[in-house]
Every structure is written in C-alpha cells, then in structure tokens.
Amino acid sequence: MLGINCIGILTSGGDAPGMNAAIRAVTRTALYNGFEVKGIYHGYRGLLNGEIETFRTENVSNIIQLGGTILKTARSKEFQTPEGRRQAFENMQREHIDALVVIGGDGSLAGAREFAAEFNFPIVGLPGTIDNDLSGTDTTIGYDTALNTIMEAVDKIRDTAMSHERLFFIEVMGRNAGFLALNGAIATGAEAAIIPEIATEVDQLAELIQNGFRKSKSSSIVLVAESEVTGGAMGLAERVKQEYPEYEVRVTILGHIQRGGSPTAADRILATRMGEAAVDAIIEGQRNVMVGIQDDKLIYVPFSKAIRDDKPINRDLIQTIKMLSI
Amino acid sequence: MLGINCIGILTSGGDAPGMNAAIRAVTRTALYNGFEVKGIYHGYRGLLNGEIETFRTENVSNIIQLGGTILKTARSKEFQTPEGRRQAFENMQREHIDALVVIGGDGSLAGAREFAAEFNFPIVGLPGTIDNDLSGTDTTIGYDTALNTIMEAVDKIRDTAMSHERLFFIEVMGRNAGFLALNGAIATGAEAAIIPEIATEVDQLAELIQNGFRKSKSSSIVLVAESEVTGGAMGLAERVKQEYPEYEVRVTILGHIQRGGSPTAADRILATRMGEAAVDAIIEGQRNVMVGIQDDKLIYVPFSKAIRDDKPINRDLIQTIKMLSI
Amino acid sequence: MLGINCIGILTSGGDAPGMNAAIRAVTRTALYNGFEVKGIYHGYRGLLNGEIETFRTENVSNIIQLGGTILKTARSKEFQTPEGRRQAFENMQREHIDALVVIGGDGSLAGAREFAAEFNFPIVGLPGTIDNDLSGTDTTIGYDTALNTIMEAVDKIRDTAMSHERLFFIEVMGRNAGFLALNGAIATGAEAAIIPEIATEVDQLAELIQNGFRKSKSSSIVLVAESEVTGGAMGLAERVKQEYPEYEVRVTILGHIQRGGSPTAADRILATRMGEAAVDAIIEGQRNVMVGIQDDKLIYVPFSKAIRDDKPINRDLIQTIKMLSI
Amino acid sequence: MLGINCIGILTSGGDAPGMNAAIRAVTRTALYNGFEVKGIYHGYRGLLNGEIETFRTENVSNIIQLGGTILKTARSKEFQTPEGRRQAFENMQREHIDALVVIGGDGSLAGAREFAAEFNFPIVGLPGTIDNDLSGTDTTIGYDTALNTIMEAVDKIRDTAMSHERLFFIEVMGRNAGFLALNGAIATGAEAAIIPEIATEVDQLAELIQNGFRKSKSSSIVLVAESEVTGGAMGLAERVKQEYPEYEVRVTILGHIQRGGSPTAADRILATRMGEAAVDAIIEGQRNVMVGIQDDKLIYVPFSKAIRDDKPINRDLIQTIKMLSI
C-alpha cells in the first residue's frame, strides 16, 4: 500500500451538511483497512498549528446525523503562503501522516492541489459544498440538504405570501452557480429563478410577474441567487419597486440557515459512499484527485478539472418554470 | 340567543399559524350549534367589497394543519374611515351576518372595537399573532409555532457557527414585545437576547461576548428583536464591529419564514379551544371581547384591555440566559 | 447552604426529550452558584456501580437540542432492594455528593422518595416523562415534544388515509393517562380518542365512524392510548372489523419514535426553568420535592403528591372532538 | 399531434409523496401545450364510475408541497375484468379523453398495459411508488421522501436506543425490494439491513450484534424490510430473543407514516420533470411506456420492462454497512 500507514482528515472552507457523515466513513473505512487515522481541527490552520488528534471508531460515533463538522473549519491566510504550507507539511511529517483527505469546496481543493504539488504526497478530496459548483461530479455533499432547507423555508413563506397576495424575492446562496436557485424554484413552484448563468432584465421579470397577477395567481415568489452583479434579492426588488410601484414587494435573505441542519438521506448516503471511496483511492495509489459521482458511479476527478468553473446547469428547467407557473 | 342566526368570520392583519385551526373550530362549533356561517375573505377589505361565502363543514376540512389563512388577509385603509366602516356594516346586513368573529393582532382588534362601538352588534376577537403582544391572555395563536420556527433556524445556524467559531446576530420579529427573542434565546441556549423592554449597551454586550470567548466557547449567538431604535441585528452588528473589529460577526434576519409553517400541537389546540370559546361567547351574549387564556382557563377580555401595550415579559429569564451561557 | 458542596445528577426510567436541556440547566446553575457537579450515568444503576464523573460547563455544551439523555438511563433491580440503596448511598458519600437531582417519571420519583427517606439527604426531582402523568404539575418535560411527534406522524398518515378513504387506528403511548391520545386527537382533527380515563364501547365508536362516513368524510382517524384493557389499537381494530366488516381498517402503532427527537421550544424552556429551580430548591433547603409548574409558576411538590395516580384530564375536550368532527 | 385533444390523468395503487407535484406538472404542461385536461378521481375505479372533472390551472395551484394525492386512489376489482375495462374505456370516450397518464406502481402499470393493449390508445405511465421497485428507472416518485421519513424516525429511535443501550429491529416497507431498508440503514448508520434480496441467518445477525456489543457500542439498530418469509421485524426479533435471551430487544413497525408527508425537493423535482415528460411523450406519439430516469436523463421504458421484477440493489452497500458499524 505504498508505505501509507496513517491518514489525516480535515474539513475546510464553508461547512456543509454531510461533512460529519464523510468524516465517519473515512475514519471507519480507514480503521477497518488497518490504517491509523488522525483528525485535524480547523482545516489547514490546524495543520499549521498542530491541532491534531488520533481518531478511533468512538470519535465518530453518532455523528452521521449532525450538521456542521466536528473537525471545525476555518480559513487560513498563512496556508496560502509557501512558508505556511512548509510548516503544515512539517507538522504532517512530525505526526507521521502519510496521506490527507480534504473535505471542502473549490477553494479548499485548489489549496490541496497546490499543497500536493509542492510536497509530493497523496491528497484525496471530497466535494463538500452546498453550492454544487464543483465540476466532474453530478452533485456535492451538502447540496441536497441545502436544497431541502431552502424548500422548507420557501414553503413557509408561501403560506404567508398566499395569505397576503404578495410578491416575494427570496435570496439563496450560489454566487457562482445557480443550482440552488434554479432547482429550488422547481421544487417550490416558484414563478421565476434569477441565476448567474442567465442574464435577466427587469422588464422580463416584470412581464412574468404581471402575467402571474393577470391570471389572478394569489402570490408570486422569485428565487434569486446571491450576486454582486444583480445586487441579489434586495437589488432586484429595488429596481422592480422603482419601475412598478404598484407591486407589494417583500424580500427575505435566507442566509446562514442554508448551511446547517441534519443532512438528508441522500447527503448522508453520498457522503458515506464518497468517504469510503476516498480511502479506496489511497489504497489504489490515487493522488491529487477529488472523489466524484457520475451516473451513480464513484469516480476520481483530477483537482484541476474539479475546480474548473464551468459546471453546466440544466437549462431546460428555465422553460419548465415558465410553463408550470401558468 | 339574542336573535343571532348567522356568524361571519374573518382574519385580519399579519397572518399567523393556527388561524386555519381557529377558522375550522369557529365554523364547526357554530354549525353544530345551529348557526349559519359565512367566511369573509381578505379581512375587513372583503367585508367592504362583499367577498363573502357561505361556509359548510367541508369548507374547513383538512385545514387544521395548514399555515397561513384560507380566508386570506389584507390591510384596508378604507375601513379606517367612518364611510368605509358604514359600507362594511351595510354589507354585513345585506348578507344577514349578525355577529362577527375577528382573528388577528392588536390593530385588527382595535378596528373591531371601533366598528362594534359604531354599529352596536357583537364582535368577538381571537388573538392571532406570532408576537404574543396582546394583553389579558397568556399566549396568542401562532406564537408557539413561530418560537419553534425560530428555534429550528437558530439550531441550523449554530451548526455552522460552531464549525466556524463565529459570533452571530440573529434578528427575529417582535417590534414591540421581546417574547420571541427572549424565549427563543432560552430555547436555543443563546448567549444573549436584545429586546425592546430592556435597554442594552454595546459595552455590556461586548463584555458578555468577550466572557464567552475567554471561556473558549466555540460560538456565540445573540437573538435580537427587530427594532427601529437599535437598528435590529444589522445596527447592533455594525456597532460591535466598529468597537471590536477583532470579532468575526455575521448577521441573519429570519424574516417572513417566522409567519408560516404548519402550526404546532400547542397552537392547534389553543386555536381550537379559542375558536369554540368564540362561539360560546356569542351564545352567552358576550360582545366586544377577545377570547384569552389565563392559567389554562378560557376567559373573555374587553378589547380595550387586550390592546393595551403593557404585557410584561418574564424578566427572570434574562438572568437565566446569563447563568446558562457560562 | 446547609453544608452542601456537591450536587449529583441522574436521569432514570424512560427517556424523554428535554432531559438534556434539564441536565444542562442543573449543571450550569449549580456551577454558577459555586457547587461542584457530578454526572451519574445509567440512573440509579450508575450510582450503585460508581459510574460517576465530574461535570464542567463543557460537559453540557451544545446538548440543549439533543433528544435522549447524555447521562443514559437504565432500570436497576438492585436499587429496589435495601442493600442496593445502601450501596448507592455509600458510593454517593465516597464521591462527596451531598444532594441529588433525579430526572424521571413516577417510578423514578418513587425510588427517590424511598432513597431519601432511608438516608436523610436532599433529593430534588424533575418531572421527565412524555406521558404527562405526574400530579402537581401542569406539564412534564418531554410531553410537548411527544405530542408534536405524534401530530406530525398522524399528519403523514392522514395524507394517505385521505388518498384511500380509510379508517385508521393509531396507537400512542399513555398506558395510565390519556393526555397524548386526547390532545393528539384535538391537534390532528381526529374523529375520536380512546383513553384509559373513559370507557368506550365498540358500538359508540362505530356509530361515530358511521356518522363520519355518512357525512362523506374522506377519512377517519382514531387515536388510541396503549392499553392492556382494550388491547390498544390492534385489539380495537379487531373488534370493529368483526362487527363491521365493511370498513377498510388500518392500524399503526407509533411506538418508540414518540420518545425521541429534538425537544420543542416549550420543552427546552420548561426543562431549563425547572433545572434552574432544582438548584434553587437545594439552596433554599428544600428536600424530597419534585419541581412542578402551575399556572406558569415554578413550585415544589412533595414526592408523595407527585406520584399520586389521579391527574385529571380536561373532559371538555371529548365534546370538542365530537363537535369538530362533524 | 395524432388527433389528441384531451388528456386524462389518474393516480392508482398505494399513494406516494410527489404524486401531487406530478399531477400539477402534467396538468400545466398539457394546458400550456393546448390540450384539455381531465382529472379522474379514485384511479381506475373513477374511470369506471365516471368520477371525472375538467382541470384548469387553478385545480393544481399550491399542491406541489402536499403529500398524498388530490385525485385520491383506490384499488378496483372490477377494472381487473374485461367488462370493467370496457366500461372504463366507454367512459373515456364519452368524456372525449384521448390519452391517459397513469401515476402508480407496478400493479397500476400492469393494469395500464393490459388496458392499452385491449383498446389501442396511448397511455403513459409515471413511476409513483415509495418502494423504488420499478425497473428501467433509477428512482421512483416518492422513494426519496420515504427514505427521509424512515431516516428521521430512526434518528428519533436512536435517541432512545442510545439512552437505554438496546437492540432495535425497525421494520420498513419494501416487500419485494430492499431499497428502503438498505439505503435507510446506510443513512442512519444502522448495524445491519435485512432485505428480501439477501438471505440472512439469525446466527449471522447475532454475530454481528455481538460484535457491536463487544465493541461497547451504545446501541444497535437493524432495519428490516417487511416480509412474509422472514416474518419481518417481529419474526426476526422473536428468533433472536429465543436464541439470545440476554439481549434487550425492541421492535418498531414504521407502517403508514412512510407513505405520507410533504415530498422532498428531489421528489418534487423528479415528479415535475417526469410529469412534463409524460406530456412530451404523448406529443411525440409515444404510447404504452413509463417515463423513467437514467443517469439524470428522462427516458421512455416499455411497460413490460418497467414491471419486470428484477431491479438490482447495490450490493456493495452491504459491505459498507458492515465496515462502518465497527
């Protein structure tokens, strides 16, 4: 097994539901296969500071259902410097960690890629991000839970929207990728989704809404991906209010509730299978790959491909939203 | 029974979970007792516009679990004028509505009080508001559900707060009354609650937070009642950041999700019992009272008392929060 | 403070949601007031076996939202013998535990009463049981959560009951007390509740159901308290099927899901306030009392009164169910 | 468009969450494309009895989030006879229904296949069943929701299992297919899954459980698919208790709660996409096919293939469960 005895594991970047299920799967699969396992707290920062602990099977008991990450996460500026990474690598050596499993989003995997290139040891990544914006994998750990959290929140808002017959702009996460907004709109029967992949003019939006009201729909809900370009839900609402002052417009920014919560079945199963595959990857001698899932099969994706910013959305769904909001 | 044959029912003001359970209880208790029942849509506005429909038992089938209000709600400027109220009363007469049940908050009950005074017919109010800010009743329809919605949202945020070790300000409803913020803080184990009833200095707050971090708590959460005085969560966060730039502060405004959702058991039971009591009140010849609950007994509270802005919070809970966040 | 330096805490009997919130409140209130705190695992059995650990504030961090009990619970036959209790008391002395807080149901408090009588030291009880069958307190820790769990399960079953137009008997806990069945029926709009406090003939039940079907209700749901007398939901369904073979009858026994789950806001707040009051009781020199709540005020109830099997249900609700299922 | 003007839609067999989302999507997509739409109540029985209603866009407003089926469902013995089907076809002609969309499980699609063969008109099926036991499609409408419902129930039971350190057998649906039990076990971190596809000896099971207890796991949970062969959870528990009386065994049968509840995001999106595809199929001249999804692409599956009883489970997951319960 290439002289690998001890696997280190860390979570990095924004936390995502299912990270704990992944930590559990990596830990137990590794232990089952005879490896030693070390948990590294606070992501790369903990690697720098030596916040490292030997993990036994009990360390991951009864965590599969917990949101967040028991390993904590942090952003580390120091790790972005060559000196920082050298320090981190030296700590790894001191702790006899031979391989690393990194659970996180694109920033975290970009860091992993650089780290691995400099010091030539195996890193395997797991896609842990609610945004689903990693390429080479159909879905990411945390995305399904976040989508359901959004759906439940919008269901609640629709109760009140329908009681008052109002227009709601609801902002969801996804600065670079519209998966949450687009699929959230389908799942909630929203009237429109404003996503970074597709430019939307206020006029188009207004027309759509007017059509809705003309058909005497009792409420209209628009899901908006957060964005510095459009100004998000708040920016959009401002422009609609300016041009169409007759609408009673309300804005809700879902914010940090989208990251938390007990993971869904799909996320727990995905995280479990991917965690197992990460250890398999190390056993097989893979390095510097992210575990992905495509057509329900686990695959290995080179980091360079995973962090490419070109994951396509399903554009047919835009038409679906339009048809179904008649 | 004082010549009352037909009872009208409407919901008014902000919607609250449990309103449908109350509509069901009023409708069926009235039908069971031989009354005719008419549902009035869009609150007082529907009374003005004649949006009125005869209700049978099927109209309220399978609604006990729904958030919002099937009767819709609206705010009506016209009803605030004497001419508007005259119009509304004439519509009631045309529809042969002899008595009215109004479900809503303080504004709605103030309107009911004026309406009843002018035209001398029985109105019974039900306290339907998530804010719990009506006097003469221990609790209001919708409050328990909103409190649980807040709790679940804060539980989710704590997942991510703990993973990142951050300070969160979370804004909840309750412009005039701190029930949601105060009890929400107890229920979530928050580090502090900022409520309108008690002035809080930024220094006090910072001290509290610093104590928390000194004790190496992994996260701090402060619940803040929305407020024009303090600027709510956003205003507070600004001031803390200015004076203590070393804190990583995040803000979430829960917003409209607090009004929606399927009502809790407590709210459904309360709404059911109060709805039944509203019809009893009419049978007993009560008029111009709100149904309240005190020490688990249903009582009648004069409108004038119900809308008094002096419902006391349980100040002991402030000390409880302080003790339990050590 | 009567020479009390160290407070022991244990949970006993069936677990109930909110026990962890109570453990947290007792621990931190005690620490805040300068006491030492010791957690005793597995109830009285752990007292016998010496499964005892010093508790610091971190031991109860982030547990307020968890179902079950971190202190575990067990039933101990040995503790029911004088020798067993002597052993337990000697362990307490060895650990310098001067006072005990016991969280549990009637069996646990009966044990506490006997233990305290024999060895003359302060025990304070907290009512922790989903059944709400302790006297002298309006409600118990865990009851509100269980009621909501039942409600959510019945809401789900009603989806399918309405789709198929069937008659469902759903069994809930409450062998000696019908609170869950009765209030669960109100909260779910069920057609009837079969509870131990009130004998129900199959004929009455059948009449009620026939009325429902005659009125072309799309489904009928009856909540049944578990019972050896009636045979519970299964026994009842058998008898109805025998006499009325034309009904399509289904049975669901909710079982152990009723004990678990994250506690509701009401249960967390109740457990927190009661936990604080337990420590206050010890400070005040109270002994051999259960903390209760009456009309929202915390009170002390002698054990002998708390375990009396005579807590009255609200019989008006039977009539409410009947009226509202028209 | 082959002379098709009016599309009928019905739900049949056991209800599944997401059926309403499918009804909404079929209805609105059909209306958007210029078809007339007729809703048929109570499945094939309603076709026989003429329980048919013209559907407009409002008929499917605000139903995407509802469990069950607004069209109701029923089993019809009469439809299983040639005379019954003739009657049904004549009613279709009288109502000018040219094509049928049937949402249901294998029995319903087998009926559709026979019906279409006899009268030569287009029927398109949608896979609506929580069991996921239809071939030619990766997943079925309702499966993801049922899986999450099971997971949430088991999470609750684990709270109490861990508090008491017990062995639980939990029975889930899936008489012919172990998807729910197997994936439910992965999602909840259960110690084993007993499924129809794989014979399990009591000895194996006992060994597994003993290993668990030897490793001092605090509880053991086994998910069991309902089965007449093994006797389900109850039968299994009996045999374990007989041979290993030292275990404290508990049984819970989840039952009908598994069918209900608001559908998850995945089920709503799946149902929406499939509903749209059903209308596309009719437009394209497809007939006697079920809409399936494979590798996230919508496909058409001949009825004969869809109802074949040979859908493979992912056997790797058995090993995963074993590894992760160390």
TrEMBL record, chains A, B, C, D:
Cofactor(s) for this UniProt protein: Mg(2+)
Localization (cell): Cytoplasm
Pathway where this protein functions: Carbohydrate degradation; glycolysis; D-glyceraldehyde 3-phosphate and glycerone phosphate from D-glucose: step 3/4
Residues holding Mg(2+): D106
Record flagged with keyword Cell wall biogenesis/degradation: no
Reaction catalyzed: beta-D-fructose 6-phosphate + ATP = beta-D-fructose 1,6-bisphosphate + ADP + H(+)
Binding site for ADP: R24, A25, V26, T27, R28, R158, G189, A190, E191, K215, K217, S218, S219
Positions annotated as active site in the UniProt record: D131 (proton acceptor)
InterPro entries to which the protein is assigned, alphabetical: ATP_PFK, ATP_PFK_prok-type, PFKA_ATP_prok, Phosphofructokinase_CS, Phosphofructokinase_dom, PKF_sf
Residues reported in the UniProt entry to bind ATP: G14, R75, S76, G105, D106, G107, S108
Domain of life: Bacteria
Start and end residues of each Phosphofructokinase domain: 7-282
PANTHER family the record matches: ATP-DEPENDENT 6-PHOSPHOFRUCTOKINASE (PTHR13697:SF4), PHOSPHOFRUCTOKINASE (PTHR13697)
NCBIfam families for this protein: PFKA_ATP, PRK03202.1
Quaternary organization: Homotetramer.
Family indicated by similarity: Belongs to the phosphofructokinase type A (PFKA) family. ATP-dependent PFK group I subfamily. Prokaryotic clade 'B1' sub-subfamily.
Protein name: ATP-dependent 6-phosphofructokinase
Organism: Alistipes inops
Gene field: pfkA
